[in-house]
DNA sequence: AATATTTACAACCGCATGCTG
DNA sequence: TCAGCATGCGGTTGTAAATAT
C-alpha cells in the first residue's frame, strides 16, 4: 500500500489556530460539510493542510463536543474502559459522548495515570505484592467479571499500561471493528444522548455478534442521568467567541 | 517579584487501514 | 490483485498557564 505524503508543507501554516481560521473552517463546513479534507482548506480559503483542518474540527470545533472538566463519573469510566481496552482511545471515546479521543488521551496521561498510581500507593505493601503477582490473572478475572465466566474465552485480551505490546501480540480485532461494535452498542442503549448518536454516525452500524454485544453492553454500567445530563452547548457562527473555546482554561 | 517547575491540552507526526479505480 | 489516495488512530511534542520556591 502506498502512502501519500502528509501534505504539502510549503506555505502552509502550522501551530495554534486563530479565531479567523476557526471561523473560516466552521463556516465552510456548515455550508458544505467535509466530503474531502484534502481539498477543504483550499476551498475554505485556509492555509492549512487537510489533516490539520480535520483535527481542528474533530477535536475542537465540532458542535457536539463537550468542553470543560471531566466529571468523576467520566474519569471512572475512562479508567474502567482503559483496563478493558488499553490505549484504544477512539473506542473509549465512542463510549463517552462529546469527548474526543485526543481529550481522553490527554486526561489519561496528565491526570488519570497519577490518580491510579496514587490509589495503588495507598494499598498496603502486602496487598501491592499480591496485586503485582496476580496482575495478569486479575486482568482476566476482571474481564470475567464483566463478561461472565461463560464468556471468559472471548477473543479479546486485556491491556494495562503495557497495552501496546499486548495489543500488538494478541489483539485479534482491529480498532475499527471494535469501534463499530462499540458504536452499535451505544446505539442500542436507551440512555444515549443525540450527541453520541452523531458522534457514532461515522461508523457502519452493523450488528455485532451476540457475544460481542453482550461484552460491549457490559463494559460499563452508567447511570442514565449521567449521559442525558446537558453539560455542553452547541456552537454555531453566531455564538462563536473566545469564551466558547476557552473552557479548557477554566480548570 | 522573579524564576523554576509542573500541569494541561492543542497540535503535529507517522503508521495502519479502508476504499476506489 | 495492486497501487494510490483519504482518513483514522495513537504516540509524542510544544507551549501557555498555574503553581511552587
Automatic annotation (TrEMBL):
SUPFAM superfamilies: Homeodomain-like (SSF46689)
Ranges annotated as biased composition (Low complexity): 176-195
Subcellular localization: Nucleus
Domain of life of the organism encoding this protein: Eukaryota
MF (Gene Ontology): transcription cis-regulatory region binding
A Pfam family of this chain: Myb_DNA-binding
Region span, Disordered: 114-212
Entry keywords, A to Z: DNA-binding, Nucleus, Repeat
Residue stretches making up the HTH myb-type domain: 9-61, 62-116
Sequence ranges of Basic and acidic residues compositional bias: 156-167
Domain Myb-like: 9-61, 62-112
Keyword Metal-binding: no
BP-aspect Gene Ontology terms: green leaf volatile biosynthetic process
GO cellular component: nucleus
UniProt keyword Nucleus present: yes
PANTHER family linked to this entry: MYB FAMILY TRANSCRIPTION FACTOR, MYB-RELATED PROTEIN MYB4-LIKE
Protein name: Myb-related protein Zm1
Taxonomic lineage from the root: Eukaryota, Viridiplantae, Streptophyta, Embryophyta, Tracheophyta
Amino acid at each position: 500500500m502506498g502512502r501519500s505524503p502528509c501534505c504539502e508543507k510549503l506555505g502552509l501554516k502550522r501551530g495554534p489556530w486563530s479565531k479567523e481560521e476557526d471561523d473560516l473552517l466552521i463556516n465552510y463546513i456548515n455550508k458544505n460539510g467535509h466530503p474531502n479534507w484534502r481539498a477543504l482548506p483550499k476551498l475554505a480559503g485556509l492555509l492549512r493542510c487537510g489533516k490539520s483542518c480535520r483535527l481542528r474540527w474533530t477535536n475542537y470545533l465540532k458542535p457536539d463536543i463537550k468542553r470543560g472538566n471531566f466529571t468523576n463519573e467520566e474519569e471512572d469510566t475512562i479508567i474502567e474502559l482503559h483496563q478493558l481496552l488499553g490505549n484504544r482511545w477512539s473506542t473509549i471515546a465512542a463510549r463517552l459522548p462529546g469527548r474526543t479521543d485526543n481529550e481522553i488521551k490527554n486526561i489519561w496521561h496528565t491526570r488519570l495515570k497519577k490518580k491510579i498510581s496514587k490509589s495503588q500507593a495507598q494499598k498496603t505493601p502486602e496487598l501491592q505484592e499480591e496485586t503485582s503477582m496476580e496482575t495478569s490473572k486479575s486482568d482476566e478475572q476482571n474481564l470475567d467479571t464483566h463478561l461472565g465466566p461463560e464468556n471468559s474465552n472471548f477473543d479479546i485480551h486485556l491491556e494495562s499500561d503495557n497495552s501496546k505490546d499486548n495489543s500488538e501480540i494478541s489483539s485479534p480485532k482491529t480498532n475499527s471493528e471494535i469501534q463499530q461494535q462499540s458504536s452499535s452498542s451505544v446505539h442500542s442503549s436507551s440512555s444515549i444522548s443525540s450527541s453520541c448518536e452523531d458522534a457514532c454516525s461515522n461508523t457502519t452500524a452493523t450488528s455485532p455478534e451476540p457475544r460481542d454485544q453482550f461484552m460491549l453492553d457490559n463494559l460499563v454500567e452508567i447511570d442514565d442521568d449521567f449521559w442525558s445530563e446537558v453539560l455542553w452547548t452547541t456552537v454555531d457562527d453566531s455564538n462563536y467567541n473566545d469564551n466558547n473555546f476557552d473552557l479548557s482554561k477554566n480548570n
